[in-house]
Amino acid sequence: MQLFLFLSAFLFLSGPQSVSLQVSSTAPQQGDFHLAIYASAADYAAGKTIIGAIKTCNDKMVGFDIELPTPGDYVISGYHDVNGNGKLDFNIMGIPKEPYGFVRPPVTKWKEPTFTEITTTVNAGKLKAKLQFKLWKEY
């Protein structure tokens, strides 16, 4: 009986984890919010998301409810595609021209952040977080 309870608790705690995000932007309410979640440093470096989602920006704040496979460390990021072309636009210097952000913002805007610098730890249960997309100059 104790083994059954232990295994049940283990399966319950290691099952899908719920993340409830409230996403906003400093840009006008137009275009789409793109969300990307990375599960490892290798995936982040390769641009390989485990979850991607897109919602129309039709309000000051848009909610995303995401199910992650297990508790752990994730990068939860995204951008506000203001012009609706389906990508984050950059200027000739490589600086984003559209708002972007991370649940755990990097310490500096002067270099691309590493996975470790922007990782959010998701424990068992439901994580509630806010994500605000800002222009590069606003960081």
Descriptors:
single chain; 139 residues; mainly beta; Immunoglobulin-like; five-stranded antiparallel β-sheet; three-stranded mixed β-sheet; 2 helices; globular; disordered N terminus
Q: How many domain modules?
A: 1
Anisotropy-based shape: globular
Q: How many strand segments?
A: 8
Q: What's the multimeric state?
A: single chain
CATH third-level topology: Immunoglobulin-like
Low-pLDDT runs: 1-13
Could you state the CATH homologous superfamily? Answer: Immunoglobulins
* CA-based gyration radius: 17 Å
Overall pLDDT level: 90
- Span from first to last CA? 54 Å
Helix content: 10-25%
The chain-level structural class is mainly beta
CATH architecture: Sandwich
The sequence of SSEs as H and E is: HEEHEEEEEE
Main beta sheet, described?
Answer: 5 strands, antiparallel
The proportion of strand residues reads 35-45%
Descriptive overview:
The protein is mainly β. It has one domain (2-138): Immunoglobulins (Immunoglobulin-like), CATH 2.60.40.10. The chain has helices at 2-14, 41-46; strands at 17-25, 32-38, 51-56, 61-68, 72-81, 100-102, 120-122, 126-133. Strands 2, 3, 5, 6 and 7 form a 5-stranded antiparallel sheet that branches. It has a 3-stranded mixed sheet with strand order 4-1-8, with no helix packed on it. The longest helix has 13 residues, at 2-14. It is globular. The model is unreliable at 1-13 (pLDDT under 50).
Topology overview:
Layout: H1 2-14, E1 17-25, E2 32-38, H2 41-46, E3 51-56, E4 61-68, E5 72-81, E6 100-102, E7 120-122, E8 126-133
Parallel strand pairs: 1-8
Antiparallel strand pairs: 1-4, 2-3, 2-5, 5-6, 5-7
